[in-house]
Structure formats: structure tokens, C-alpha cells
Amino acid sequence: MTWILPVAVAAVALMYASVGHAGATGYIAVMGLLGLTADVIRPTALVLNLIVAAIGTVQFVRAGHFRRDLFVPLAVASVPAAAIGGSLPLPTAVFEAALGLVLAFSALRLVREVWPVYEAKDNAPHALSGEDPLAHRRPSIPVLLATGAVLGLGSGLTGVGGGVFLTPLLLALGVATTRQVAAVSVVFILVNSAAGLAGWLASGRSLAAIDPWVLAAAAAGGLAGSQLGAFALSVRWLRLLMAIVLAVASVKLLGEAVRMANG
Fold first, then answer.
1. What angle do CA 10, 222, 16 make, to 5 degrees?
2. What residues make up the domain containing 169?
């Protein structure tokens, strides 16, 4: 068992980091399957998330993909909305089921968009350069504020990181390229992971001791994944990986909704 967790963490970090996410959902699933307790799983996932998001931020910003004009209004609106979402006594099972279906639809939409466009136009300039077609609409500040509020509310209500909601919303708005969406998402996740970890410590709770090999695995996976996403992967494969990540989050939300509905 000593090698299973580091290997699994490295694999999760690599896949998620390549699309500008940090992998908290994957770490929680892996640790749960290995029988770790809840008081160990949550802070450990936060620490791993912070490590991978920090590495991803450096990589995507260094590659020149980060868009401050998108990030600031999204973050400003999402933080208070997440706080409100966390305090609302809404029927969580229904909400999680709805969000799970939305993410599933987003994943299918990404797959449907990618294959006909990029498979049929492999020799097109944007396919060779890794750039997206028609992804440069001027962002509207009110729309970004509304988007930030919606994803913050969803994050607060479900406990799922805001990045998984941010990615499909930004892609649907068409205000940024795929790599820019990944860059904004990873910085957004970094900020929220740091806030979550600070909140955990401020409440008087401590961090469980984490195996150095697990920390190293997260760093290695995050470095390799973000390097691929920021510099190497074609847009087609980047979007397909995004679809996989959204599908995993969808399954998690729908599973939680079914579990809660059954008591």
C-alpha cells in the first residue's frame, strides 16, 4: 500500500494539471478508496491542491496564457457568493444532481466540438499553432461578475472546487482560448485552495502528517501535467482532457446526490 497512494496522486495531478485544475476531487476519491479517514482526507487534499495549483500557476503564467482582465472580476464576485452558498440550507442532493447533469452536458459538448473541428482541419493554421478559432470575443465585466457569482455559489453549495465550473463557463462564453481558460482556472483554484487551507487552520484544526513521497508525487505530476498543458498539448487533446475531468466531476456529483437521496 505504501506505493499505491503516491502513484495514484501523481497520475491524478498530471491529468488535472494539464487542463488548469489541481485534482482535489481525484485525491479525495483515491484516499477514500484506500480507507483514509475524513479528518485526514480533507486537509491532505487541500495541501496537494495547493501544491499542484501553485506549480500550474507558475507554468501557465510563464507561458503567457494568464488573463488578469478575466480573473479579477470572476474572483471578486465568486468569493462572497461561495460564502453565501456555504451557508444556505438548500436541498443539496437536488442541486448536486442538477450540477452533475450540467457538467456531463459540458463534457459531451466539448467532445462533440473537438472531433469534427480539429479532426477535419488538422492542417488548419490554428490546429498547428495550438490556438482556438473564434475565441477572442471581448469580455463583458457584468457577464464575468455574474459568472463568478454563479460558480462561487455552486462551489459553496457543493464543496466542489470552482475551477470545474469555471472551465466550461469560460469556454461557452468564448472570451478566451483553451490555454487561457486553463490559466485563469488554475490561478482561481490556487486562491481558493489557499483560502480553504487558511480557514482550516484558523478554526484550530491541525494538518495530518503527509508522507513526503505523496507530496513529491503531487509536485512531479503537477509539474509534468502543467508543462504539457501550457506548452505541449494540442488544443484538441487539451479539450478532450478537460472533457474527462468534467465527466469525473459529474459522476462524483451525481453519485453524491444519489447517496444523499437514499439516506
1. 80
2. 4-261
